[in-house]
User: Fold this.
Amino acid sequence: MNALRPGVLITRRLFPEVLQRLGEHFELRDNPQDAVWSPAELIERLQGQWGVLATQGDRIDASVLAACPQLRVVANMAVGYNNLDLGALTRHGVQASNTPDVLTESTADFGLALLLATARRITEGERYLRAGRWNKWAADMLLGAEVHHSTLGILGMGRIGQAIARRAAHGFSMQVIYHNRSPLDAATERACAARCVSKAELLRQADHLLLVLPYTPANHHAIGAAELAQMKPSATLVNLARGGIVDELALAQALQSGQLAAAGLDVFEGEPQVRPELLALSNVVLTPHIASATRGTRLGMALLAADNLVACHQRGQLLTPINAPLPRK
Ligand code: 8YV
Assistant:
């Protein structure tokens, strides 16, 4: 151990390029087995570390920070950072960063893919074929919902929502409506060909509703029984954001009763566990949190997280900070 080089913990198995870059600056402690650590194991491995390259499965809150007083910086390899207690980090003088931009386009591609798979019943059709049930063509077999020229509702109109809107409007001739904390400026709205509406109108008008908003306590179960009841029975719901935004039990009931046609889910409240109520349904497409999963994008995310640690060490400044902690005494 070189006493002059700060220690960095990498909580999950990452790419060799990332280890190499970090290894030029830090004493590394990594996780080549890719074990998923309990909170106590995370605390144990964080002892004496200056920084951590974390992922969205690593909860870093007041209890972790109190137990790891030497920790100065958390580089989260995700654009979402609901796994971090930002208030506690700020109070403890710990800097934190996320990975915006690098994942926008591939996540938007996946949003469209999941919407198409769900509305056009692609995975259901594949299961049907593989089960040997396809023995004749039928005019009414596996009929799905139109995607082109339909109305796409987007809840949360950040970078990913905008990239999805551009694809939907220009590639699929969809009408795009959105709801966001604040409306986009006129030029961005024009580029996305999108119109800002109330949440109630979004729910009522959307043929397909895509969720891409950040997960905060305020939007826990933002889509619950009351919201699902306002949607068209023919509608599709796609969640790319975080599982906790949707009340999954209410969703399973709506899908089961025919109150909602179909759902595409890449994220789950208790992931990697998925509710049996959802697994039992054929009108749900389920994917294991892979919206950003291309090699180029995941490598870009990991390198950006690594570069944040390097920049913080060399200049005391993160590249993509998400808090502004008071200087430590
Ligand atoms: C990541 C994501 O793959 O960036 C996010 O917020 O949800 C995904 O792109 C995942 O969170 C890795 O930590």
Notes: The chain has a mean pLDDT of 97.
